[in-house]
Amino acid sequence: MKFPPPVVPLTVSAVCFVLLRTPASHDLFSRTTHLVLSVLCAIGIVYHIILLLSTGQRHPTKEMTSGEGAPDPTAVRSLFDRIAPRYDITNRVMSFWFDLQWRKKLIAKVVRNPPNGRVVDLATGSGDVAFALARALPASSEIIGMDFCQGMLDQAIIKQRQMQTACPALGRIHFQQGDGMALPLADSSVDALTVSFGLRNMASRSKALAEMHRVIRPGGHLYVLEFSQPWRWFRPMYLVYLRFVLPLVAGLLTGDKKAYQYLNHSIECFPNRAALAAEIRQAGFTRVEPQALFFGLVALHHAVN
Ligand SMILES: C[S@@+](CC[C@H](N)C(=O)[O-])C[C@H]1O[C@@H](n2cnc3c(N)ncnc32)[C@H](O)[C@@H]1O
Question: Best substitution site from 77, 149, 183 to test ligand 1's pocket, by max atoms within 8 Å of Cβ?
Fold first, then answer.
């Protein structure tokens, strides 16, 4: 997606600068006008810098991708193993705690079509979606938290033990290893499947979606919560945040700057809402409904099998 040329911020800055530098500016303008012109000049310059920093495509970190540029599963697993102990806190800080709201929206959608059989939270990570499902769904539903990274599952199990006394409903979640590329589940055995911030890390989206289609029963539901492409005006600021701020701060929190360089690339390259909806349809799902969250930065797709 191309950005508009940076003429607007440059022109605004230049005009304000010229007005401020005219010899008679002190007689012509009040102090308030001076202040407004200075602020506009500064905003124009900062916005121009943001536009410059956000142009072009970032290339994937080579060691994290396979030949075709898709995430390499071995590297992805080892990355999540490394960051697992600091995953939750880094997520909270880097999303300014908004990730909690996004997962709440996902759960609210699941509850609107209450599943009564087996519910799988794929790429469950440290288990937050699985825990919220266990709190929200009736005791009759079986909940499985599945991930291919044992380090992340260990974090989920530790949290489950800690919270179980206060909330016994969490004890019924079964955390198990499973690869989204070859799910260890029988055909049509799942009532609803959620995948939150996991799909973009899978080696092949089409294969992962085909597997989800295979295991969800006819009439069952799929919910995909994932980063998406934000609204056009918000994109430059967002890219600067992803490319420069996120790896730096996350690197300080986890001691693994490289991991977050890969993660921000995977976010930058992920399809927009319409394109992901098309891929979900292509996998055989119907009634695909994308919902934009937070200036389009995150998308929640709901589909029926
Ligand atoms: C960004 S975390 C998301 C965790 C959690 N769902 C959340 O909302 O915080 C991505 C997770 O996807 C898992 N993952 C990546 N590829 C996978 C695959 N092929 N099969 C299963 N899990 C996978 C990783 O191990 C990691 O735990």
Answer: 149
